[in-house]
Amino acid sequence: MADTGDDSLNNTLFRNWLKVVLSLRILASGLTHFVEKHCKQLHRKLISKAEQISNSTLTSCSQCFVKTILPWHVYKNGGCPAQKTAGVRCRCKTHGAHVCPTIGEPCSVMHDLIVAYHHSHNPLWRNTDCQSWVNDYWSVAKCYLSTTGYASSTSAADMDCTGLLSLCINNDFLRRHIDDISNFEKVRNWRNTLFHSPNLELSESDMKAAIQDMINLLKDGQDLINESAAQSVAAELSKITSEDFVLTLAESKKMLFEMMNAIEYQKDAAIREINEYTDTKLDDIRVEFVKCRGQVLDMEAFQKYLVETYEKYYIKSDVSPLFPEEDDNIDDLYVSLKMERRAHTLGKEKTLTRCGADIYKTRTSEVAEQLNTFEELFQKNGERVENIFIVADAGMGKTTLCRKITSTWCTCYDEQICNASTENSVETTMHCTDAVRKISTGNQQCMLQFRFLFYVSLRHATTEHSIEEMVEHQLLQEKHINLFHSILEKIPQQCLFIVDGLDEWKSRANEQKSPKTIDGLPAKNCKCTTLITTRPWKFAEVRPRTSDVDSEVHLKGISFKNASILAGIALGRLNKSRGKCLKVENFIAEIRKRNLMALVGSPLMLKLLLCTWFDNNNLPGTKTQIYSTVVKLMIRMYTEKRGENRDQETHKEERHLEEKLPFMLQNFSEFTSHARMLLALGEFSFKTFVKSNTLVFELSNFEQYGMTKKDTRAFLEMGLLSKSRLRTSSVTSHTVQISYIHRSFQEYFAALHLSGHQEQIETILAMCKGSRRLAEHQGILHFTSGFEPKIVRRISEHIYKDGSEDDTVDDAIYTIVQKTLVSCISEAGLLRPKPGSVYIKILRLTNRPDLDMLPLINPECVCRLDITEHVQLEMKHIDCIFAMTNLCHLVIMNDNKVLKSNITVALLQTCIRLKCLELDDYNFLNVSELTILPISCHLSYIRLFRCQLTHSQITSMICDVPTLEDLKLWTVTCEPDRHCGCLKQIKSVSHPKCKIENQKEDDARLESAGNGLYYLKSISVSNCQVYESSGVFTHLKDSNSLTCLKVTDSTIDTSFLNFLGQCFRLEDLELDFVAFSGYSEGCTLNGGSLQQLKLNDVDIDYRIIISTINGCNTTAPLDIKMNHVRLIGINADKFKCLLSECNGVSIGPFSGNKDYVQTTSLKVVNERTDLVGKTDVVHEGSTTKDVRTVSETIITEIAPGLLSRSVERTSKRVHCVLF
What keywords is this UniProt entry annotated with (predicted)? Predict the structure, then answer.
C-alpha cells in the first residue's frame, strides 16, 4: 500500500479497521435494490390483505398517531398475539388508545399486519408515521428497523448499512427471500464491534473474516446471487482484502468524518428519545398523582369515620357486669393479659431433623411462647402473621383485648385522642410503671402498620357469610363500600380484621362450600391480617387447617398482681358511684383467705367476685353460688330502684312456683318473690340454647316462651339482658336486638331450668352426639352440677357410653371431657358424687384436681391412664390406680419419680388386659425380675423413652410377647445382668440387687456357653424402632417375621450382624448414619431374601457388602444404592474394579473419592458372581494367602441355615425400623 503521508495510516491495525468501515459503506449500495424491491412487494401485499379484512378500499388517514392507535384485534375481540410472545407488550393495553376512525380502519388494520410480519412481533414505531402507511411503502418498511434516527429516511438509497441489515433481519417477508440469514447477523455483529472499538483497531485476520462475511451475504443463493448490483459490490469487496489496495488520505478522512457525523446523529436522536420518553412518563405521573391524591383524601375521610365510630360504640368497657350503664374508656380499665403462643414440637428436649424423628411424633408436646406486646402478637420471627386465633374460656378477656387493640389503633390515627391520652386518671397513673409505658408506646408503634382496622362482632352476624359482608353490614355506609373493596384489593397487608366471638356465631346451613373455606369459619377473600377470638371447644370443633392458622394464641387471664390492680381500678369507680370507701387490700385478703386466687385470673370472675364482696363483704365458694349471688344482687338493686311491692295474690303465685327453683335458691326472697320470671327466663334460655344456640334475640322471641314485655323490660333493667342497636347500611333506621350480658348467664339460667326438669338433661346429652359437642355445652353442665350434684353421675355415664361407641374421638377432646367432669365435681361441692360412681374412659392425671377426682371414679371403666410428670402420687392414689384392672393403655411419664420402678412393675403384673404401654425415664436395673411385663400379656404396642433395662428384660420384651407388633425404643440403655451370661461385662455392672453369689459357678457355666452368652432367642416383634440405644440386640438369634428393617444413628457390632444374617425373610434393608465396629469372617447383611439395600452415610468394611452380594439367593434381583459410604479396607476405585469383574453385577453411575463412594447403584441378578474367593485376597490388610474363601463360608454356614429354615414367603410385609 502506498504511503499516504499520515502517521495514523502507518498503523496496520488502524488501516484494517478503516478497510472494514469502507466495506460496510460499499455493502449498503449492494443491498439497496434488493431491499427496495421486496419492501414494495410487501407493501402491496399488506394493502391487499387489509382491504380484505376491512371489506373496503383503504384511504389515507389524517387523524391517527402511532401512540394512540388501538389494534384491530381489540376491536374484533380477538386474541392478543402478544400473549404468546414473552417480553412483548401489546398496544391494546395502552391507556387512551382508540380504533382508527377513518373508513376501513386502515391504521388499526395495518398495525396488526405490520406486527404479524415482524420476526419478534415487536416493531419499533418511532421512525414511522401511520398516516403514510396506505400510500408510502417506506413508512411501512421503517417499522422493522431496530434503532431510532431514521424518521427522515424516504427510501433504501438514503439508509446506511446498519438500517438495511436490521430491516432484512426483522422482516419475515424479506427473510423468505434469504437463504442464510446468519450471514446478515454476522455482518451486523461486525458493525457493532467496529463502532464500539475504543482504539479503532482491528487485526488482519478479523479484517479478512469480516469482509468475507459481507461477500458471503451478497452471494446468498436465493435472490441476491441474481442481483447484478450485489455481485458487482462483492467483486469490489474482494479487492479490498488484497495487498495492492490503496486507501488514500482523502478517503480515510471522509470515512472518519462520516462516522463521527453518524455517531453524533445517533447521540442527538437518543437524547430526543429520552426527552420524549421522560415527558410522557411525567404526564402519566401527573395524572396518577391527581388520581392518587383523591384516593388518599377519600381514605383519610374513611379512616376518620372509622375512628369516630369506634370511639362512640366500641372502645368502652363496663366497670362491672352488674352495672353495664357505668362504662369507661378501655384504656383506663385495661391491664395486661397473659398471652401464650402455642407451638407443637417433637420430644421434650430436642427436635431431630434427620430421619428417625418420626419415632417421637407419638409424644408431641406444646411449647408456649409468652407474648407481652402487640408486635409479638402480630409478628412471628420478624414476619407478618396473617391468621391469628385468640383462644380462651369465657370471661378471660377476649373481647377486652379486641377493644384495647381497637383503642390503640384509634389513638395512633386521632390527634385528639393522642393529646387526651396524656391525661391519665389517678388509678391509671398508679399502675402505669415505666415498663407499662414502654409497652404502650411499642403497641402504638405496632398498630401504625395497619392503616385500616375493621371490627366485626360475630354475635350480631346472622345472615352474612364472609367477613367482608359483615364489615359492610355492621360498619359501613353505602358510600364507603366501593372504597372498602378497593382498599382490600390494593393494600391488604395494611388492613386488620378483628372478628370477635366465633363461638357465638352459627354459620348458615345453605351457604356455599368450597375448598377455600372451612365449616364453622366465616369466609375471607383477601390477604388481610385477621384476628379471630373463640372458646377452646369451638376451636377444637372447627379444626382449621394448619395452613389456615399462622398463630394460635391462648389467653391465660391476668396475673394475681394485675388482678389486684384491676380490682383497685374497678373498686375506685364503685366507691365513687356508690359513696363508699372500701379498700382493695381487704378484698384481696378475703380472696387469699378463701383460696380463690385461681378464680380471679379471669377478669369476668374477678369483677363478679368484687361486686359480691362490695355488697355484703362475703364471698361464696363455687361458681354457681357466685353467679347466684350476683343475680340476687341484681334483683335486689332492681327492686330497690323500682320500689316494687308485690301484692298478696302475686305473692301466692310466686310461693307456689318457688318449689320448682333449685334448693339452694329457695332460701332467698329475691328468688322466691320473682320465681315465675326466673323460671320463664330459664325455660327461654334452655330452649333457645338447644334450638339455635344464639345470644341475640328479637323482642317477639321472648313472648313465645311465656315472658311478657314487662318481664323482658325488668330483666333489661336488672342488667341480665342488654338491648343494642345494630348498625346497618341505612343511616335513618336501626335494628333493635336483645342479648345476654354474657353467654355464661344464658348457661346459668338454662341450668336453672334443668335442675327442675331433670328429665330434660337427656335432651342435652342426646343432642351431644360425640364428646366434641358435649364440650360445647360444658357451661350448662357446670351450673347444673352446682344446682343438682346428682346429675354428675348421669353426665359421666353418657360420656362413657358415647365414647365407647365413637372411635373417632381424639385425645384433645377427651382432655376437654375430663376438664368438664372435674369442674362439674368441683361445682357439686360437699354434695359431690359417691366414691366409684363417676364413669370415665380415658383419665389423665396432670394436676391436683385430677387426683382429687380419683376416688370418685369407677376403676373398672377406665381403659386408658396417663400419669404425667406434674403430679405427686400418694398411697391412696396408688391404691385407686391398682384397682383399674381393665386398663388397655398405660402411659407413665416418670420425670419427677412419680411412681417408683418396683411399684410400676407390680402394677404391670396386674394389668393382664394391657395392649399399649408407654414409659418415660425409668431405671429398671435395680428390679430383680427378669421381665417387667405380665406373664400372660396381650401387648401389641410398647414405647420406652430414656429408660434403662437389663439384657434379660429387653430380650424378654422383644421375644416373649407373641402379640407384640410395634416396639419403639428411644434412647434406651441395656446392660448385662447376672442371668444373661455376658461374663466380660459382669464385673463392670454394680447393681445392689444383682450380687454374684457364686463366682465359680458362673465361670463354669460361662465356659460351657462357648460364645459368652447363656442363651439366644428368636425375635417375635413385627415392627421395631430404636434410636440411639445400646444392647438391644445382644441376645437376638434370628427372625422369621421381619421383611423390612431400617437402622439409623447406631454402631453395629458383630452380634447384630449375626442377627441380620439370620433374618430369613428380610427383603428391604436401609442403614443410615451407621458405623460398623468390626468385621468377622462370613458377616453378611443378607439372610437370603434381600431384594433392596440402601446405605446412606455408612462406615462399613467392603467385605460385608461382598458377602451380602454372594448371599443373594432370591429369584428377584438385589438392588443396592450407596450414598456417602466410607469403605474400610479398600478405596473406591479398586472397589469399582472388583465389582466390574463380577458376573451378574451391573453398576450404575459411580462417583467416588479415595475411600468414599459418593453415590452409585448396583443390581445383582440371582446367578452366582465371581466374587467368591476374591474377598480376602483383595483386602489390603490381609497377610494370609491361604484363607477360607467367602464361597466356603456360604456353603458351610449360610446354606444349611437357609435349608433348615426354608419357609414359604407370605404377601404380608413386616417393617422394622432401627434408629
Answer: ATP-binding, Nucleotide-binding
